[in-house]
Write a structure and sequence with these properties.
The structure is a single chain. The protein contains three helices and four strands. Strands 2-1-3-4 form a four-stranded parallel β-sheet, sandwiched between helices. By secondary structure, it is an alpha/beta fold. It is globular and about 30 Å long. Strand 1, helix 1 and strand 2 form a beta-alpha-beta unit.
Length: 74
């Protein structure tokens, strides 16, 4: 298995810490920004953390989808 990068999409206050830890942080304050961030993810991203608001916007995925997504509580 090849390692991939980690990204986070959602409200700035929720994702900025991911950037400090070396992940790709995509602050997105509205649905259009969330979709733009989702569609601009690099091909090597393997895991995406989504805020609850971002999860409501991102298209539905199957459990086997790449990238794997995790919804942040809150």
């Amino acid at each position: 298995m090849t390692a991939g990068r980690i990204a986070a999409i959602g409200e700035q206050v929720a994702v900025e810490g991911f950037g400090l830890a070396g992940a790709l942080a995509y602050p997105a304050g509205d649905p259009d920004e969330v979709l733009a961030a989702w569609h601009s993810l690099p091909a090597d991203v393997a895991l995406v953390f989504l805020t609850a608001a971002a999860d409501r916007v991102v298209p539905r995925r199957s459990p086997e989808s790449v990238p794997l997504t995790v919804v942040m509580p809150g």
